[in-house]
Automatic annotation (TrEMBL):
Lineage, uppermost ranks: Bacteria, Bacillati, Actinomycetota, Actinomycetes, Propionibacteriales
Superkingdom: Bacteria
Keywords, ordered alphabetically: DNA-binding, Transcription, Transcription regulation
Gene3D superfamilies in UniProt: Homeodomain-like, Tetracycline Repressor, domain 2
MF term (GO), any: transcription cis-regulatory region binding
InterPro entries: DNA-bd_HTH_TetR-type_CS, Homeodomain-like_sf, HTH-type_TetR-like_transc_reg, HTH_TetR, MftR_C, Tscrpt_reg_TetR-type
Span of domain HTH tetR-type: 14-74
Coiled coil segments of this chain: none
Residues annotated to bind DNA: 37-56
Keyword RNA-binding attributed: no
Protein name: Mycofactocin system transcriptional regulator
UniProt gene name: mftR
């Protein structure tokens, strides 16, 4: 098939978030996160830097993938919970479901989480992402309890859920044979048992 006359020879007609992530992760692994630039990634993908910025506003956003879409899905998961479901069960189930991924993506997800949790340059950016994730939970808890998302209890549930999730991921990174969803389920159950 003939190439489009408006496209440079050798340049792919389209790219996507996944292709950019794969190229970026390969570079991060090869030369380190700090030493990889957006120029390096753009060259590896075969696109201009301006095109790259349309997919990811910064290098720090790449390890987070399509996080805004994931958060929208997370919120929809809570919206789908029957109103008769106990609040703790709803939060527990949605947090585990949010962290469920296809087994074929395990290695890439492990590398993603290692970057997010262990790269000092990403910590400030990660705090912004964590806050958005906690807010989804706080807003759900607030709706269920007729409170404001900024009230103490909804905010606390968001923070505790994040802490349990981070602890599960840290354990998963240390124990490659483990399952992050099993660890999350166990730790959320243990916390609920302890608090009861």
């Amino acid at each position: 098939m003939a190439a489009s006359p408006t496209r440079s020879p050798g340049r792919p007609s389209v790219t996507d978030h996944a292709a950019i992530e794969r190229a970026a992760f390969a570079l991060f692994q090869e030369q380190g996160f700090d030493d990889t630039t957006m120029d390096h990634i753009a060259r590896a993908v075969g696109v201009g830097k301006r095109t790259l910025f349309r997919y990811f506003p910064s290098k720090n956003d790449i390890p987070w993938g399509q996080f805004d879409q994931s958060l929208a899905h997370f919120s929809r998961q809570f919206d789908a919970v029957p109103p008769t479901t106990p609040l703790a069960d709803a939060v527990h189930g949605c947090v585990v479901a949010f962290n469920t991924f296809d087994e074929s993506a395990r290695d890439q997800h492990r590398f993603r989480m290692r970057l997010i949790l262990q790269t000092p340059a990403l910590q400030a950016h990660s705090a912004i992402k964590y806050e958005a994730w906690r807010r989804v939970i706080a807003e759900y808890v607030a709706r269920r309890l007729s409170l404001s998302a900024g009230d103490h209890l909804p905010r606390l549930v968001g923070h505790v859920s994040l802490a349990v999730s981070v602890a599960a991921y840290e354990q998963w990174l240390d124990e490659p044979a483990s399952s992050v969803t099993d660890l999350l389920d166990e730790q959320l159950t243990a916390l609920r048992t302890y608090l009861a």
